[in-house]
Structure formats: structure tokens, C-alpha cells
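Human:
Class, as today's exercise, you are to examine the entry below, and be ready to discuss the fold:
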Amino acid sequence: MVDLLGRAGCLDDAELFIYKMLIQPDSVVWMTLLGAARKYGHAEIGRRAFDRVVKLEPKNATPYVLLSSIYAAAGRKDELAKIRSEMKEAGVKKMPGCSWIEVDNQLHAFGDATHPQSKEIQAELDRLVGLMKKAGCDGCKQIPPF
């Protein structure tokens, strides 16, 4: 229900629903509200949901990232710096993103330069981005290197 209300932009109703739940809301419920707050740029509800998630999962980096995103999008640089400081003080670290692909029953991870073919992979990604730009994809950004 929190997800449905959040997707519809009814963040106040979603938060009220959580407070009226007959069971103790878990971190998933609060994270759902935090995600909706990020989508709609609602910093106050986002901060309250963030505080609840962090109490339940103090070492989870996701709520820090979501709240940082809200503050960054709103241009709230002071709050952004504060949340990053809180993350550092709590000893929480965001793991870098990573993609996976399975080829011939062998799992390959991508996201840094440790893959033995990272140079070839980056060259192919650059080539594909060039083709996309030629085809008229003006929103394409340069894919960051591994």
C-alpha cells in the first residue's frame, strides 16, 4: 500500500498509513517511502523515512544515497554535505555499481578495471555510444571508464 500511494505521489497519505499500521513497520516499508520521496523531491518526508531506516539498518548505504539524491536535486548543498558527513561518521560506505553477465557458464563482473578485457570492453562501449550519437541520440553521455 505504501508503494502504491508513493507511486501516485500521495506521500503524506503513505506516511500516515505507515504510522497507523497495526504491526511495526520494517526497513522495507520506510525505504519504500524514502524512494517515493526521492522520486517526488520531498525532502522532509525523505528525511523522516531516512531516520527510520537508519535506526533499523545502520550500515545500509542506500538510505544515505537516496537522501543525498533528494538534496542534490533540490540544490540543498548544506544538507547534502551534512548527510555525506553523517554517512562518513557512521562508517557507512557505498559499494560501487557493478554489472554482471554470464557467458558459457562463467560469470563476469564489470564496473572496474580488474576484468582482464576491461580495455576492450571500454573501447566497444565507446564505439556503441558513438553509433548512438550518430543515430540521433543527443541525450547520450560518454560512458564513464571502468
Remarks:
- Residues 99-134 form one domain.
- Residues 142-146 have pLDDT under 50 and may be disordered.
- The two ends are 39 Å apart (CA to CA).
